[in-house]
């Protein structure tokens, strides 16, 4: 019997990657992909009505407010989606015995640690985006017993959405010099790898509930990542890549957001 899986926020880069990989499959999974236009997790009535009329075993929540800079200017919107929306989703999952798989972020940490962050480390976000995502995590943990919270870092798709990988390629079309910061360390994560990991939890019917970390394994700075992108796309000879250490952003960002991974 096929397992029924709801994917919320399916128009984002992770949701679209899951759809590309698994919308047509032979592994006993039946996916329903809903964008915010199809199902708004911040609309309680809409959410309750949908869950009452449909049956699922899992819900993969890809719905999120992810604009780190803008979250500083409109924190209410970030909290509405990343905290209150997630709360409503968790409440409906509890009511209908659905296992929630919720995607969170490395930005729940302050970046002051010198070594990779472990699941057991105390979160301490330093920007509104991170604070709103942590609030969502805490609400899920308070409401549900059977859940997966997966923190990931520097997520990118080569095909979908707006992300660092695609931004570098876009800039390379019109600019001869790119100035990229070297004062943040993390692990870029391809949505394909995260999608496969999430689906593997379902296929295996994993019971290892709780908070976990997932990222690709290579640690680098944003400058290193930009260099990697240009090399991979045979553009390194055409672009002058300049390493800088004083790149200013409106939102504070963790200097170290490397997630510790289980071997």
Would you kindly provide a written description of the structure presented here, covering whatever features stand out?
With 263 residues, this protein is α/β, with parallel strands linked by helices. It has a single domain (3-157, 188-218), classed as Rossmann fold. It is built from 8 helices and 12 strands. The chain has helices at 13-22, 44-53, 68-73, 75-95, 128-143, 164-174, 191-203, 222-232, and strands at 3-8, 29-34, 58-61, 99-105, 147-152, 155-156, 177-181, 185-186, 189-190, 210-213, 220-221, 240-244. 40% of the residues are buried.
Short note summarizing the structure:
Helix content is 37%, strand content 19%. By secondary structure, it is α/β, with parallel strands linked by helices.
